[in-house]
Amino acid sequence: MKIYLVGGAVRDALLGLPVKDKDWVVVGATPQEMLDAGYQQVGRDFPVFLHPQTHEEYALARTERKSGSGYTGFTCYAAPDVTLEADLQRRDLTINALARDDDGQIIDPYHGRRDLEARLLRHVSPAFGEDPLRVLRVARFAARYAHLSFRIADETLALMREMTAAGELEHLTPERVWKETENALTTRNPQVYFQVLRDCGALRVLFPEIDALFGVPAPAKWHPEIDTGVHTLMTLSMAAMLSPQLDVRFATLCHDVGKGLTPKNLWPRHHGHGPAGVKLVEQLCQRLRVPNDLRGFS
């Protein structure tokens, strides 16, 4: 049995960032051996155990095979013969496919350290395209690390566009979409999340009310940026600098959605866009099952 620290803890340590949560992978063990060692099993779909003292998660090394649609359509195989490299290969990004052993040595079969240094978000393998949730995860990582000048690799963005065009995002549940969005809204640069979604076509699918604002002009006297979609993301960026509150940021995202309903012959003025936007915000919140406290504030 060999135990490795994996994923975000290794990534953030290499970036010099605080490590909040630790995840571990166990190679060469069976569920019974973990139970005999005092671990408590918590995973139903695949063997995940809690450490008896730290209560951190220890997962048996596993592989995944696509067996259905959406982000839940996978068959997992966990056994003592699954290697660390095979386990790391199923992960989304190379910077998340890193491991560290007991001696502090970094195991990096997919060149995650190179991409960390290059500030690149790059997918590990074509299997990335099998899980539509990863489109949102990449957008969230782009927002989370925007202050470190991370960008998405061209081939990864191209794959995200292919997944969106193929209708893969339609398999996502509202709860998962909102959870990723909520996490993105609490980052230092939440506007990057929505810009990435727009770049790959996902904004039109998941947030049509926001996507409709791009290309809609506003009076240059009040909005020098003119484009309402651009204005919305600029305002969200400013709100993030002024307040860490989720409700403030979400309300800022939604503040101009009514302008997307203005007939073109009335552009660039948008009289009554506030009341007009109420139904759109309610529609967005209901579709994504946004918590009630945020709905009222927005």
UniProtKB/TrEMBL annotation:
Please name the InterPro entries in this protein's record: HD/PDEase_dom, HD_domain, NT_sf, PolA_pol_head_dom, PolyA_RNA-bd, tRNA_CCA-adding_enzyme
Which keywords has UniProt assigned to this entry? ATP-binding, Hydrolase, Magnesium, Metal-binding, Multifunctional enzyme, Nickel, Nucleotide-binding, Nucleotidyltransferase, RNA repair, RNA-binding, Transferase, tRNA processing
Q: What Gene Ontology terms describe what this protein does at the molecular function level? A: ATP binding; CCA tRNA nucleotidyltransferase activity; hydrolase activity; metal ion binding; RNA binding
Domain named HD is located at 228-298
Q: Which Pfam families match?
A: HD, PolyA_pol, PolyA_pol_RNAbd
Cite a single GO BP annotation: RNA repair
PROSITE patterns the record matches: HD
Gene3D superfamilies referenced in this protein's UniProt entry, alphabetically: Beta Polymerase, domain 2 (3.30.460.10), cca-adding enzyme, domain 2 (1.10.3090.10)
Q: List the cofactors.
A: Mg(2+)
By sequence similarity, the record places it as follows: Belongs to the tRNA nucleotidyltransferase/poly(A) polymerase family.
Write down what this protein is called: tRNA nucleotidyltransferase
Q: Which organism does this sequence originate in? A: Salmonella sp. NCTC 6947
Q: What gene codes for this chain?
A: cca_2
